[in-house]
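Homework help board

Subject: predicted structure for assignment chain

Our instructor gave us this sequence and asked us to write out the predicted structure in token form, then describe one feature. I got the tokens but I'm not sure how to describe them. Can anyone check?
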Amino acid sequence: MIEEPGIIIKRLREERGIKAVVFAEKIGMSKEQLSQTESGRSDTLSSDSVYKFANGFNMKPGELAGMLYGSAEATLDLYPK
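My token output:
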């Protein structure tokens, strides 16, 4: 069974022991937006969101995109804006 991107985001956050409110502030997102993403109520993650989450987890955006979607190149522009 393939995990939804929001579930993976939540798992990564919890594995690192970061409270949702702290993580949301760290990545410049409201707690409500983070909650919507983690619960799957937000349908898709924009490339900007993937960059924010990756930075919050101290990961490369392509690494996180690969975890979320299986293929970073197919889903994420790896060149910063």
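Reply (TA_rk): Your tokens look well-formed. For the description, you could write something like this. The longest helix spans residues 5-15. That's the kind of observation they're looking for.
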